[in-house]
């Protein structure tokens, strides 16, 4: 389990804050991420000036190919369709993957089970 935490200090009141992040590869391509919008869109949350708060995103880390990665963090105000970007921090954190089980893809999903099952041949004559 991985937790990405984004800490913010409000310089002014923020109504309907949207805090998010994404992980990008060495070429700057966003691979995955998340934000707080859907979880808090109907909460009426307002952050007052001077308040310090933290958004925590917990998830099972996908499998990545070896290489360098960066996390970009951002905060906006409003909705996904109509928002004002308040802060965008490129390369807020850097990390390196040194070993992987992947071949030929950028991101692997954490598979719960893999199996090969022998099936009986289809018998059209039985129809």
Helical/strand content category: mainly beta
Helix content: under 10%
Q: What would the principal axes of the Cα set say about the shape?
A: elongated
What does the largest sheet look like? Answer: 4 strands, antiparallel
- Radius of gyration using CA atoms only: 21 Å
**H/I helix tally:** 1
Strand order of the largest sheet: 4-3-8-9
Tally of strands: 10
Elements, N to C (H/E): EEEEHEEEEEE
- N/C terminus separation: 50 Å
Q: Estimate what percentage of residues fall within beta strands.
A: over 45%
**Low-confidence sequence ranges:** none
Q: Overall mean pLDDT score?
A: 87
Write up this protein:
This protein is mainly beta. Helices cover 3% and strands 51% of the residues. It contains 1 helix and 10 strands; from the N terminus they run ββββαββββββ. Strands 4-3-8-9 form a 4-stranded antiparallel beta sheet. A two-stranded antiparallel ribbon has the order 1-6. Strands 2-5 form a two-stranded antiparallel sheet. Strand 8 and strand 9 form a beta hairpin. The termini are far apart.
């Amino acid at each position: 389990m991985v937790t990405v935490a984004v800490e913010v200090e409000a310089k002014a009141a923020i109504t309907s804050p949207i805090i998010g992040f994404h992980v990008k590869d060495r070429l700057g391509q966003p691979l995955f991420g998340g934000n707080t919008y859907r979880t808090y869109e109907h909460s009426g949350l307002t952050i007052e000036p001077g308040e310090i708060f933290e958004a925590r995103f917990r998830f099972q880390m996908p499998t990545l190919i070896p290489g360098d990665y960066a996390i970009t963090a951002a905060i906006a105000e409003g909705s996904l369709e109509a928002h004002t970007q308040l802060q965008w921090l490129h390369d807020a954190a850097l990390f390196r993957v040194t070993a992987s089980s992947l071949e030929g893809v950028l991101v692997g999903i954490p598979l719960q089970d893999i199996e090969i099952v022998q099936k009986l041949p289809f018998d059209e004559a039985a129809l």
